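Quick start: read one record
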Amino acid sequence: MRRGITVVITAALLVVLGGASPNKVPEEVAANMRRMADYCKEVDGKPLPHEFVEHGNLADGLEFWAINEGAFQCEGAWSLFCGSGGCQVAVYMVLPNGHAKQVFARGAYGMAMERTGTAAKLWLGVGGGLCGQEGNPSHADAIHCDRPLTWDTKAQRLDFAPLSKARFPARLRNW
């Protein structure tokens, strides 16, 4: 019975992804989504159908799936995946065999996808040193900015674009 509930929740979550077909979502992404729903239920919460996954292609054509844990809604445990430092964002690149590899994971204060034609760019809301602030500021004293992610072909991973590409003041917030 528990597996049946998880399958129903996963299917509902996939429908929220803008009509994405369940057979097109890489197993690694679907497994992460199921883990989140299962964890929500373990703490007596109820996963709600709500967009928390983005799907697109980077400018160089690489297909990605991005999971924004801060946008996941767990009724009864609203802050389950977030803390004072933000919420985890995990990005997966789709491999030629249809599977996906996680190429980025970091806490952030928000995530947004900006589409231009057929390409998409991911932006994360971050603070402190990631915005160029020196020292070790307290959370209250940290400056905030939005930083785009860029593909590093040599390292085969996503990383923050140069600070010169950041947006000040920050606009992205999950809460």
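The first helix runs from residue 2 to 16.
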